[in-house]
Amino acid sequence: MTIAVAALYRFTPVDDPQGLRDRIAERCAALGIRGTLLLASEGINGTIAGPAEAIDAILADLRALPGCADLDVKRATAAAMPFHRLKVRVKREIVTMGEAVDPANAGTYVAPAEWNALVADPDTVVIDTRNAYEVAVGTFPGSVDPGTAGFADFPAWFRTNRAAFEGKRVAMFCTGGIRCEKATALLKREGVEDAHHLRGGILRYLEEVPEADSLWDGECFVFDERVAVGQGLAPGTHVLCRACRMPVSAQDRASPLYAEGIACPRCHDARTDDQRAGYAERHRQVTLAARRGERHVG
């Protein structure tokens, strides 16, 4: 059975995040939906998966919530369920930047069909707002990589490098668009008025822009068991290292430092023998479960 996947977010005031969390969790469980949804007083964010009719039903429910009629949704499919379980959690932020900004003051949206012309303009500075390990999987060539380990590092990085962007047109992009809502709002608050961001993020760009016209190089990391997707949101070639949870390319898997389920070149030297032994036992249990036609969760 083909699984429907929906990445979604919406910035809108939520009066009772905990009460909404309970209702959404109950509804998703009843529909057989898995994935992660984050709720905060500023809105909702997450990625969920399940049968197409179940995803249609929960999206209709979410769009019926106050302020959510224009819920931003990117849809894809997967050959197998990309999540082990359902998590619906209340957080301080639906995407953690660590300081308050007003997403209503975000930059100018740029449709995927208009993105190529904007970033090709030599007067445009393009910034990839994602984490360094995501950028390594794929990006728009020529974009600035902040080299951050987490989105909460972005404000400090920008302030350290702000002189490079003063008086410039800035175009920003991220996976699904949500990080850029806050990032462009931050830049505008810091005095960069000509700030733009890719509507729907990389996922919508890969979905809507024909491969022949695409400027994207590589794959796009996603935060589920698909690991990465390519043009048209087709499954990518990366796998997840079960030790460090980082994406592993085909080239990395050819390294003598890679052992499936145990280590990859990134983390091999950062793990003890006891840790590797634990990973090996877990991988053995996963393999045994697969042979029985079961899915190991642990």
Can you give a write-up of this model?
With 298 residues, the protein is α/β, with parallel strands linked by helices. The protein has three domains: 3-90, Alpha-Beta Plaits, CATH 3.30.70; 103-217, Oxidized Rhodanese, domain 1; 240-291, no CATH class. It has nine helices and 15 strands. The protein has helices at residues 17-31, 52-63, 112-120, 132-137, 154-161, 178-189, 201-208, 250-253, 273-291; strands spanning 3-11, 34-40, 43-50, 72-78, 86-90, 108-110, 124-128, 138-139, 169-173, 195-198, 217-218, 220-221, 228-229, 239-240, 247-248. The strands form five sheets. It has a five-stranded mixed sheet. Strands 6-10-9-7 form a four-stranded parallel sheet. Strand 2 and strand 3 form a beta hairpin. Helix 1 runs antiparallel to helix 2. The radius of gyration is 20 Å and the shape is globular.
